[in-house]
Amino acid sequence: MIRQDADFRSDTVTKPTQAMLQAMVNADVGDDVYGEDPTVKKLERRCAELTGKEEALFVPSGCMGNLIALMCHARPGQAVLAGKLSHIHQYELGSYARLGGLSMIALNDESGWLDPNELSDRWPGDAYYLPEAGVIAIENTHNVGGGLVYPLDALMELRKLSLERETPIHMDGARIWHASAACNLPLTHWTQHVDSVMMCFSKGMGAPVGSILVGSQSFIERGRIQRKLLGGGMRQAGLLAACCLHALDHEFARLVECHRLCQHVHELLSDVQWMDLTTPPTNILMTRLKEPRAFELEQHLARSGIGVLAFDAHLLRMVFHRDISEKAVDELIGAIRGFVV
Predict the structure, then answer these.
(1) DSSP state of 78
(2) In the chain, which residues have pLDDT < 50?
(3) Residue 88 CB contacts under 8 Å (≥ 6 apart), including other chains
(4) Alpha-carbon distance 111 to 262, whole Å?
């Protein structure tokens, strides 16, 4: 069984602190579907202010938040332009197609961001049988890219193109908190250059449930309708929003410690010849095994109560979060070095 303090599979495994649970007990709640939950409204106002957007919408999950954004920005039959390694493209069950009626133009994002030149080259033409571009979707920080932070110069180039083509940009900012913490910059450093952003509270921020979608007033009005359509309206959701507010006040400052642990493990494993490690800017360490044995390594570590996540036969991910202990880090290093290749 994977131990909580040694679970590197994802930062979604974090459990609420006692202080967070107490915040739930003390929460002032109402019916959020009627717009009457004061704690949800407080969270939405605060997130709108933090991102420089007009309004915000509390949603159950990041996947739903992303889908709502795509469905608000694009009409059925239009295309999403996104990275081929992005979470929206790879790990959300093709919901943009199944539920949104959208197609996908998958672009190279191995660098962690989209190349505006490639985007321009791949832009759908005017032929009647080609889908129109409906929305550009980017990811910050980039999960498969190893927690890469979207560089501002690349984002500004992308924004210029999006304005020229009159096509909105949605940012999957599930871990944008880590970008802000790592760079010591406000969220607006990135959010001012996009039309909408989804941000998760249930990953590094440690809340049990909840994400937020921010954008213009008209966008959020449409988003509220799409949330209802997808079954995402919640009643006394202030119980969950209270945890998210607590995270903003108390958990954000702890993210840099997760980055330190991640970089520490990278340094200690840098001499392992059968692994190619990415340099981690935030809390995700991706490693590519030279032999197709990632699933074997995952099982080897699990036998010691250590959790990691194999994406395929070569690619393995380790994510650092507030529940990881220094002892578990030492055990992780020892167990990896004890794996016979």
Answers:
(1) -
(2) none
(3) 66, 70, 80, 82, 96, 137, 139, 172
(4) 20
Cα–Cα distance for residue pair 262/318, rounded to 1 Å: 8
- pLDDT tens for residues 252-296? 999 999 999 999 999 999 999 999 998 999 999 999 999 999 999
Q: What is the spatial distance between Cα 48 and Cα 70, in angstroms, rounded to a whole number? A: 19
Specify whether the CB–CB gap between 227 and 210 falls below 8 A.
no
Q: In this structure, which amino acid lies at residue 283?
A: N
Helix, strand or coil, per DSSP, at residue 213: strand
Cα–Cα nearest to 201, from 38, 37, 60, 3: 60
Q: Which two tokens stand for residue 81?
A: 């332009």
Q: Under a CB-based contact definition with an 8 Å cutoff, are residues 141 and 199 in contact?
A: no
Instruction: Dump pLDDT digits (tens) for 7-54.
Output: 999 999 999 999 999 999 999 999 999 999 999 999 999 999 999 999
Work out the number of other CB atoms within 10 angstroms of the CB of residue 31: 15
Return the residue matching tokens 């994510």.
319
Torsion of CA 62, 63, 68, 70, to 10 degrees: 110
Q: How many residues does the chain have?
A: 341
Q: What are phi and psi of 190, to 5 degrees?
A: -105, -40
Radius of gyration of the CA atoms of the chain, in A = 20
Which of 187, 201, 175 shows the shortest CA–CA distance to 112? Answer: 175
Check residue 340 and give its pLDDT.
73
Quick check: 82 and 218 in contact, CB under 8 A?
Answer: no
